[in-house]
């Protein structure tokens, strides 16, 4: 009976005479293959979640609740029949309730909190908070207990984040501070509000005064550190993100299409598209907007993402309690250049997210009546939540473009989207009328075509007038929803994730390798040349569009008696403006290195520098293992690849400066460093460490304090802040955006 093979794959112990088949209906019999395939998939997912995911996330917490899930699974195995629905649904519902809690506990532990289930303690319900304080703190001034429950967390997520950040901030100044999350979810005690123990009057009273989620927001409560409403815009290549941003700007500027026709359109992003007119379908290429060397758009390669890097557009809305809206345009996923390009684009998205202080909304742009959703959509969702955490799901919006064709509904895309969301481990992503919006960006293209002298018939004019009005209404509804219903998702330094750690490590690769090379230079200087000289790295900022060309010939420069290959920095705007070398020969860099020679010994003793290079080497091994085996972002050791590249560079210098013995000695030292690195990698591979994200962050923070690395990281941060807004943020004047924002209550 091959139709039942799917279940046997998951539950082989139920094969044979003990397996009972009870037909449900003729329909089920006719579709039994599909039925069993779906059932087998659900059972396999249960097995992975119960025996792997949940134990890992809970880390010994909520043992009774995990045990109940395991009991339900055993009950399901023992009662394996076709009439499984009640058992499957019961287990499914239980896991849907338990998994978000497990991820919440995992997130707490990554933020140095211990988890404490109050229900496991025999406390007098009338005095449980007081007894809890006495039992756990016991006059210990280095303990902070955050008391809450699931109901309060869901209702007051913003307050939870603020309380948590308050005590995390305190821990930064007191590393001995012990943090505890006391969970009142499973005990009968009615905790009326979140509090911190020992009772800190200043903190708790400040938090108790804040408005609840449903309260009307007063003007004074909107004065935050960052007066931006940040909306991250994400979508598949070709869905029309750039067109949507242009259209959105005009919907905020002109209430009616008649007003838009009488004025010059607001075009933030250059547009280029084809339009056909007349009975003979005559083609017209329409272009509008300023194309220059700083644009992040590429119109020359159909199928590729038009937007090449993240770029933000700020709408100055100071007439709305001093707020501004920043929409961050991102490269599209599902790029025809393949999954590697998608990974690069996702890196851009994660990079720009990391630079923000908060996100108010994450907007996914879709087309209605899609026949399928690209697999990259799921990858993008997964990686985004890997970075931000599951709580960011409450800030998701869905916007549909070209919705006029489906009467401003989601059409056939809705069941595909709902199915994909249900398949994710984060199960509470909302998809409902309140967070879903419908636009017709074609009305903006119609406007641009009119300004290019294209004429339309009366029926077309009427349709576009109506679609413009509908899109204006949806724009106002979107801003209303973001301002009134959503709490900003904080992006404090306290949050941790595998993806974020991956980005931090990748940023450290060059600083670590260059620091180790320079330490070896100084060792050789002291031993072979002059003990009273030292070479110091002098990192310099570069334009954000700079890349290092590895193909163009470079000529060594002298630093003391060492020869050093200078950084060959080229200006790069979609293509190299200096050379014609292939784009793969250009590497993005955050800074360029120069060197200073001091005629005195280093500020550090030789044994200190020897200890430092050893610590850097061991850190590079831990980081390489993390990237390969935990983040799984690469199959190669990037530090080993970097060392081999450095050796090749030094050999080129030796070939050009044959009489120089110092660089030859450096090659030998680097060869020995590679041998040591490979040996240590073998050891860590044979005896893998436990996956400890907190330990990786501790190592990252420690390495960033090392001499030579600290200076390089400082320039990277300075450079990022300096160029963040220069070419990659467009300001829309308040005058052009006024007069059209209708909020039922102030945001």
Mean pLDDT: 77
Indicate how many domains the architecture comprises.
Answer: 3
| Global structural class | alpha/beta
CATH superfamily name of the largest domain? P-loop containing nucleotide triphosphate hydrolases
Number of strands: 22
Residue fraction in strands: 5-15%
| Low-pLDDT ranges | 1-30, 201-225, 293-307, 735-747
- Binned, the helix content reads 40-55%
- Gyration radius, rounded: 30 Å
Through-space gap between termini? 62 Å
Describe the strand arrangement of the main beta sheet, using strand numbers. Answer: 13-12-11-5-9-8-22
For the report, how would you describe the main beta sheet? 7 strands, mixed
> Mind telling me the CATH class of the largest domain?
Alpha Beta
Count every helix, treating DSSP H or I runs of 4 or more residues as helices: 23
How does this structure look, described?
It comes from Rotaria socialis. InterPro entries: P-loop_NTPase, Sigma_54_int_dom_ATP-bd_1. This is G domain-containing protein. Keywords: Coiled coil. By secondary structure, this protein is of the alpha/beta class. It folds into three domains: 53-201, no CATH class; 228-489, Rossmann fold, CATH 3.40.50; 498-705, no CATH class. A seven-stranded mixed beta sheet has the order 13-12-11-5-9-8-22. A four-stranded mixed beta sheet has the order 1-3-2-4, sandwiched between helices. A hairpin with a 5-residue loop joins strand 8 (311-317) and strand 9 (323-329). Helix 17 (498-529) packs antiparallel against helix 18 (606-630) and helix 17 (498-529) packs parallel to helix 21 (693-703). It is globular, with a radius of gyration of 30 Å.
